[in-house]
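Task 17 of the worksheet. Students: predict the tertiary structure of the chain below and write it out as structure tokens. Keep your answer in the requested format; marks are given for formatting as well as content.
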Amino acid sequence: MYMKRVIPCLDVKGGRVVKGIRFQGLRDAGDPVALADAYRRSGADELVVLDVSATVEERSHGLATIRALREVLDIPMTVGGGVRSVEDASALLEAGADKVAVNTAAVRRPALLRELADRFGRQCVVLSLDAARRPGGWQVVVRAGQEPTGTCALAWASRAVGLGAGEILLTSWDQDGTGGGYDLPLLRAVTDAVPVPVVASGGAEGPEDLARAFAAGASAALAASMFHDGRWTLPQVKAALKGAGVQVRS
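Model answer:
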């Protein structure tokens, strides 16, 4: 049985970690390097770093932050935000990323996923899929949730994997930052639709939410506020998951 991964997420804007609700009302949550080092030492399996304003501001990801993070990290790091080309992805990988997440640019030009997979291997390519509930299912939203696309999230997930995405970072726009738990029907639908690992994101408040996500098919669960705000530590979460019968690393 594969070990389930517990992944803290750093949403970064202007060199600081921020957190909001449904991608809005962002508040300062600390220094990214200090938080990353603390999470590494306390048992994070991986780290996800998303520049939440890069796409909206039409710029690339801040490479200096990624270099600084790599200096303190010895765990895998996925980096997203502002990736529009093979060159953008290459710069992030050279700065220290292990995987590159793409969202808006891939929706605009799906061939980007194939180009990234051909150049770096699909194990480096993560589709960052933000989905919002709509009548009849879920719709892809882009530009930090500001723009609906009219595209079915399940159809896009399946197509993206066919093009070269080796993993899906699945965020529920409706649940993000609410502490109401992951959108489990969405998670089940996507994990049933694709053969690659799916990372659950958006809404975690405690270890029971992560356990439900794993039961729904997630290979990994991402959380931010519950760690940043000190409500739970990684050792506490992993101990609770083990107690619930979930196979996680110590």
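Marker's comment: The chain has a mean pLDDT of 91. The CA atoms of residues 63 and 92 lie 7 Å apart.
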